[in-house]
Structures are given as C-alpha cells and as structure tokens.
Amino acid sequence: MQQQYLSILVTFIVTGAVVGLMVSLGRLLGPTRPSAIKGESFECGNPSTGSAWGRFAVKFYLTAILFIVFDVEVVFLYPYAIVFRRLGWFGFVEVLIFASVLLVALLYVWRKGALEWD
Amino acid sequence: MGIEIAIAVLKAVVVILLLLGLAGMLGWVERKGSALIQDRIGANRASVFGFAGAGLVNTLMADPLKFLVKEDLVPAHVDRFLHTLAPCVNLFPVVVAFAAIPFADTVHIAGRAIELQAVSINIGLLYVLAMMSLGVYGVVLAGWASNDRLSLLGGIRGSAQMISYEIGMGLALVSVVMTYGTLDLQGIVRAQGHLIGGWLPAWGVFYQPLACLIFLIAGIAESKRNPFDMPEGESELVSGYFTEYSGIKYLMFFMSDFAEVGLVAGLMTTLFFGGWQVPYLLADGFHLPWGATVALPGLVVTLLQVASVMVKVLFFCWLQILIRWTLPRLRYDQLMAFGWKGLLPLALANVLVTAMVVLAVQG
Amino acid sequence: MSPVVFMMMAVLLVAAALGVVLHRSPIRSALSLVVTMFLLAVMFLLLDAHMVAALQVIVYAGAVVVLFLFVIMLLNLREDARAMARASKVVAALVCGGLFLFAVLWFLVSAAGRGIDGGLEGGVPATFGSTELLAERLFTQFLFAFEVTSVLLLVAIIGAVVLAKRKLA
Lengths: 118, 363, 169
Prior knowledge:
By secondary structure, chain A is mostly helical. Chain A is 69% helix and 0% strand. Chain C has 6 helices and no strands.
C-alpha cells in the first residue's frame, strides 16, 4: 500500500521542483528595473481612483456555502456508487431520500432568488 | 526500494514533460487553429534560418525564451510571497492530476509489473477530483495578491465559477463510477475493453452519454475557457485575475490553462472513450470481429496503446479549441445560472436514473 | 507505519497549525489552514484510511477553506496589529488549551491497556479503510446518521440564505 503513495509523493516533489525552477529562472534571467510608473496597477493608463475595495458582495458567500453543501452531497454519493449494486433497491431509496432533501434545499435557494444576478 | 523510486521519478518526469510540452504546443495550435477558423494566416514569424518546424520553433524556443527573459514586474504594495505563490499553485494541481492518467496496460519488464501511470492508486478518480478542487486557490490568490480591484473581481468571479461547475463534474463522475464500480482509472479503462454486440467497443460514452456531455461542459467551465471565460474577460477586464503578472508567471498561467485543456481531454479519453484501448486490440494482437487475428509482440501492443491515448487526447484538445473559437461568451449570470439550475439537477437526475436502470437490469 | 514518518508528519502538521494561529495576516492563516488540512489527509493515508483522506482534501481543503478565503477577501480583512496584545486573551487561551490537553492525555492513558476498536465487532477487518467497507457500513450500520446529515445540510443552507437575505434587505 505504501508503494502506491510513494508515486504520489514523488510526483508532488518533481512537479514542485519543476514549478519552482520556472519561477526562479524567471527571476534570475529577467532584468530588474523598477520605476514608480511600473509599480502602479494596470488600468490602461487611467490613474486609479478610490480604494481597492467596493461593496460587500454577499452572493459569493452564498455560492461558497452552497458549494460546500453540495460538495458534501457528492462526497456521500461516491461510496454509494461503489456498492450500490449490493445494496439493491433499499439502498436506492435511502439515497433517494438523501438526494431529495438536498433537492429541496436547492429549490428553496432557487425560489428565494439567491441564485440570481451572480 | 531504490529501483522503485527511480522508476517513479522517471514516470513523473516523463508525464510532466509530456503535459508541459502539450501545453506549449496547444498555444501554437490555438493560434494557428483560430487563424484557420477565422480565415487568416496566424503566427508565422518565428523561424530559425527559414525553418519554422510547424510551430515547434515558436512553442519550444521563441515563446518560452521570450517569457523567461522579460522583467518580472511585481506591482508595488502587493504581498510578494502570495504574488509569486499564485501561479505555482495554479499550475501544480493540474500537472499532478494529469499524472493519474494511464497510458497503457501493465507492462512486465524483468519480472516486475510496471504501470504506465505516474500515479497509480486505487482511488484514482477521487485523487483527480481532489486535485482539481485545489485549483481554485491559484485563481483566488492571483486576484487577491495583485492588490487591484479589477483583478480581485476577476479572481472572485473566476473561483465562484469554478466551484459552481465542480459539483456538476463531480456528479457526472459519480455516474461513471456507478457504471464501472471502481475508482481506479486503470480499472475503468480495462473495463472498456470488451465488445458490445460483438463489434462495438464498450467505451464509456455508449453507457453514459449524458455524463460525458456534462463532464465536457463542466471541464471547459473549470478551465475558464470560452464560452465560460468571463473571469478572464479579455475584452473587459484586460486579463482578469492575472492582469498584474508578467514574464514567466504570466506564461505559467497560460500554461496551466492549456494544461487543464489537456487534463480534461485526458479524462474524457480515459473515462468515456476507452483510454488506451484500441478497438479489437487485445494483449496479444488484433482480434477482429469477423474472426481474423493479427498477432503482435507485446512491445508493439504497448506502443499502439500509448499512441491511442495520444491521438484521443489530441482530438479532444482540438475539440476544445474548436469550441472556443466557435461559440460566443456566456454572460456571468447566465453562466452561474446554467451551472446551478441546469447542470446540477441534470447530473443528479442522471445519477438516480443510472442507479434505477442498473438495479432494474440486474435485479 | 514507521514512527519516523509519523514523527515527520506530526511535526509538519503542528507547525502548520501554529501558522494558522500565529500569523498576523488572515490570508496567510487561511493558507496555513489549507496546508494543515492537506497534512491531515496525509495522516489519514498513513492510517490506511484512503477514502477519508481523499474526502478530507475534497471537502475541507477544497471547499471549506475556499469559503474562509472568500469571506476574508470580501470583508477585505487586513492584518490585525492589536491581535496578540491583551494578556487576558493569552491567559484564557492557555487555560483552555491546558484543559484540552489534560483531557486528551487522560483518555490516552486510560485506553492504553485495552486498546481502541471504535465499535467494530470482531476487531479490525483486513480490508479496513477500503472504500467498499466504508460504503457498506455507511449505508447499513450508520444509515440514520447519513439521513440526518442531509437534514443538517438543509438547515445550514436555510440559515445561510436567511442571514444573507437579511443583510441585503
């Protein structure tokens, strides 16, 4: 079993090394001539106005919460997908109940308009 | 133990070079392909002594060298650590996820069974999904680290889009797991080796056509390509969340874009189009449906299998490029509505119907 | 699983967890949290719980911390310079941490003789941690918990929507 995870570790290390190499090569090979104008944010030449922040957008927070809930649902469906043949119709009804409760949640969010104007 | 590590390192290096090379080639293919579609010539200036090598000079020499020697411009008032970390975090998960794609059947050399798969674990599909869900961080960090409200907007919108379509993708993959009963990618490819009705290869697309379509759409949305590239918004937000990047870091963002194209193509071939299975090719040669057999040595079979994967992956990369240059861009609210109200219920219904059909057929 | 590997992972894990608590910038804390979750998944792998490790990365590192990052960015939380200043906070943290440590040590010492089998009849099966075993148990022995989870998730969504809507209206 450890052999399998050795391949993951090795892949991670090699990928990390390649990515790190790319960034450091860029840092080494490129010139460094900082100036005030180059340091500003890019807005096609127009000077920036105001702070870097605007209104609080609640819809992104709602999207993230919805994502957590449905991700947990998907994560419960994976074990089901592996053994569902053994569990037969009884298991199917169990998962149907589970999925329909979460479908109710989706419908609630839909009707409340939280999925709009994102 | 040393041999094991050496083999693992070799496989990892080969797969990484393959994917990064593919990502580079796709850059040129995109430019020439879009030129073909738009009836113009496209990039044709990079050449060495008049030899352009069908884009090889451009992708392997001109582009990387150009990006490497540009100044690494970091805007003032940014968190330098996060600014440097973001492109790395963007590229890393895509590459390690691609490492799970199997390229051929198990090869037996010198009494040792070697899988032609850099990461061969029995929960391969969950591993791929886990790595893809880590891809959100690159976008979020890039947007934040640029300390610029346009980039931040692009970053948050990009990550919101990615997480919305991840659920559709996850559910489509659940129905694939239902069909094959295993999470192991090599096992899924092996299970697509038999024939339906004696002549049709049992590829996943024939069992799960809807899941295939949902996965393709969700995959394109995950990589934020047209028609889902609002966060990059080339015509509105300059470059969206990676506006403030230059040099090799900018190239890394583009590379991860194309690497993700390669990853989605790789997953499509592995899960739905037979992976390394060549129709009618078994371990000892071709067994054609009308009875003829062609015996082939093991090495040739392996090479044919690897070639099969490459051809299918290239086809799906080309398909994604074609889709990009054909369809208009979805507006952001249309995009999110499609993900939550369209793909999610559809994918969930697909899962339940698949369960019902399989239970009805079996029981 | 060798003690050396476990020790290395444990040290990294504790360092990442300290990073979550000690960093001044909330974004760096959140990133340390991602690393902590990832290392926890590695710990699960070392304990042969493969599916749980993958699910840990998918749900925790891939969803929950993304939510944290969204909130931090949307609220534009910058460094809190006065965070560690007050002595009363440090004392309270030490007391709570000490109590928790005491409870954990007491549990470990009292369980040292008889071992922990987690409610599995007949000891630990050979296929421990495999996805099939987990799936079978989840849908037969722990069915009620599974169904209640869906209701919990529904409640969470309703709560989130109510709170968010009130903010807008």
